[in-house]
Write a structure and sequence with these properties.
Elements lengths: L1 E9 L2 H20 L2 E6 L4 H7 L5 H9 L2 E6 L3 H4 L8 H11 L4 E7 L12 H4 L3 E7 L9 E4 L4 E4 L5 H16 L4 E6 L5 H14 L6 E6 H10 L6 E4 L1 H11 L10 E5 L4 E5 L16 H13 L4 H16 L2 E2 L12 E2 L2 H19 L1
Parallel strand pairs: 1-2, 1-3, 3-12, 5-10, 8-9, 8-10, 13-14
Antiparallel strand pairs: 4-5, 4-11, 6-7, 11-12
Helix pairs in contact: 1-11, 1-13, 7-8, 9-10, 11-12, 12-13
The site of 3-isopropylmalic acid has 6 residues, from helix 5.
Length: 364
C-alpha cells in the first residue's frame, strides 16, 4: 500500500513525540512491505513565528493532499498568560479541524494491564475498563459566536448545536457501539442548557435506528463523578466539544497517564491522529516525554484511515510487549515495581520499533 502521511509536529513536546510515531510507521512500512511517504508542515507557535498565522495556507494545502495526518500538539506559555494576544497557536488546531471537516474525535481509553499501578485510581476499580469517547469537534462554544461588549467588561461564547451536527456524530457513536458492548452513554447538561436539550432529543431520535444498542443519558457533572467511581460501567460515551475536552483529560487517568492516550479525528475525508496531551513546555527539550500516545495514534491511523488491522495490532502488541519487559517513561514509572527501567523519549520509540520486528517474526 502506498500512502502519503503529513507530519505536523507543532510545538513543545509535539516535535519530540511525533518523531517517535513516525519512527514506528517507518518500521511498519519496512516489515509489512508498504510505501509510506512523509512530508512535514508548520502549525502553531512555529507557524506564527514564520508566517504570522497559526495555520498558513500552505499547510492547509499540504494537508488536503495527504492520505492521513500525524499531529503533535500546539501551544506556548507566552500566550497562556497573555489573554489579549489576538493570534494564538491553538487557533491553528481549531481552524484545521473546521477546514478539514473533522467533526468526530475518537478517544479510546484502555488500560494496559502493566500500568494498573501507574494510575492514581485503585487497580480493582480500573481493571478491565474500556471506554470509547466520541467527542464532537467542530461545534459548541468552541465555534459559536464570541465577543466582548460593554466596553470590554463583558465577554461571551455562544454554546450552539444544530441538529445535523448532533446526528452525524451520534450515528458514528451508535455504529461503533454495535461492534462493542452495545451501550451508548450520551453526556449533556439538559437540565440547564437549551443546546443540551436539542442534543438529547436528536440522540434519542438517532437511537431508534439502532435498537440493539442501549442508550442512557447522563448529566456531565454526574458523568465526571461516575467515570472515576466506576469506569467499567461505560462503553461508548457520546458528548459535545467542551464536555468531551474536559472528560477525556479526566479519563486519561484511567489509562494511567495523559502520555498514553491517542485520538483520531475523522469526518469528511482525511483523518488526523494525535495524542490528547498538549505541548507541555515544562518538560520540552528534556527528552522525557512519553511517545506512546503518538505511537498509539499511528496505530489508530493504520486501522481507521488505511484499514490495516494487522499492522495496527502489531503496534499495540509492540507497546504491550515493551511495557511487559518493564520499560517506562518517567510519567508511567511506578517506583514500587522493581524491574522498571526508565527510558527517554527516543529510546522508548526505538524499543517499540524493535518489538514490531519481533512480533512479525513470531507471527510468521
Ligand atoms: C485537545 C486540546 C485542544 C482542545 C486545545 C489545545 C485547543 O485540549 O485537543 O483536547 O481544547 O480541543
Ligand atoms: Mg483537551
Amino acid at each position: 500500500m502506498k500512502k502519503l502521511i503529513t507530519i505536523l509536529p507543532g510545538d513543545g513536546i509535539g516535535k519530540e513525540v511525533t518523531a517517535e510515531g513516525q519512527k514506528v510507521l517507518v518500521k511498519i512500512a519496512e516489515y509489512f512491505g508498504h510505501q509510506f511517504d512523509f512530508n512535514e508542515a508548520l502549525i502553531g507557535h512555529d507557524a506564527i513565528e514564520a508566517t504570522g498565522t497559526a495555520l498558513p495556507d500552505e499547510t492547509l494545502a499540504t494537508l488536503r493532499k495527504a492520505d492521513a495526518i500525524l499531529f503533535g500538539a500546539v501551544g506556548h506559555p507566552h500566550y497562556d498568560n497573555n489573554p489579549n494576544l489576538k493570534v494564538r497557536p491553538e487557533q491553528g488546531l481549531l481552524k484545521m479541524r473546521k477546514e478539514l471537516g473533522l467533526y468526530a474525535n475518537l478517544r479510546p481509553i484502555k488500560l494496559f494491564d502493566e500500568l494498573l499501578e501507574a494510575s492514581s485510581i485503585k487497580p480493582e476499580i480500573l481493571k478491565g475498563a474500556d471506554i470509547l469517547f466520541f467527542r464532537e469537534l467542530t461545534g459548541d462554544v468552541y465555534f459559536g459566536e464570541k465577543g466582548r461588549k460593554d466596553n470590554d467588561e463583558t465577554a461571551y461564547d455562544l454554546m450552539v448545536y444544530s441538529k445535523y451536527e448532533v446526528e452525524r456524530i451520534a450515528h458514528k457513536a451508535f455504529a461503533a457501539a454495535q461492534s462493542r458492548n452495545k451501550k451508548v452513554t450520551s453526556v449533556d447538561k439538559a437540565n440547564v442548557l437549551e443546546s443540551s436539550r436539542l442534543w438529547r432529543a436528536v440522540v434519542q431520535e438517532v437511537s431508534k435506528e439502532y435498537p440493539d444498542v442501549n442508550l442512557t443519558h447522563m448529566f456531565v457533572d454526574a458523568a465526571a463523578m461516575k467515570l472515576i467511581q466506576d469506569p467499567r460501567s461505560f462503553d461508548v460515551v457520546l458528548t459535545g466539544n467542551l464536555f468531551g475536552d474536559i472528560l477525556t483529560d479526566e479519563a486519561s487517568q484511567i489509562a494511567g497517564s495523559m502520555g498514553m492516550l491517542a485520538s483520531a479525528s475523522i469526518g469528511d475525508r482525511v483523518g488526523l491522529y494525535e495524542p490528547i496531551h498538549g505541548s507541555a513546555h515544562d518538560i520540552t527539550g528534556k527528552g522525557i516525554a512519553n511517545p506512546l500516545a503518538s505511537i498509539l495514534s499511528a496505530a489508530l491511523m493504520l486501522d481507521i484511515s488505511f484499514g490495516l488491522k494487522d499492522e495496527s495490532q502489531a503496534i499495540i502488541n509492540a507497546v504491550s510487549q515493551t511495557l511487559k519487559e518493564g520499560y517506562r517513561t518517567i510519567d508511567i514509572a511506578d517506583s514500587k515495581t522493581e524491574k522498571i527501567k526508565v527510558l527517554n523519549t527516543s529510546a522508548m520509540g526505538d524499543m517499540v520499533a524493535q518489538r514490531i520486528a519481533v512480533n512479525e517474526t513470531i507471527t510468521n
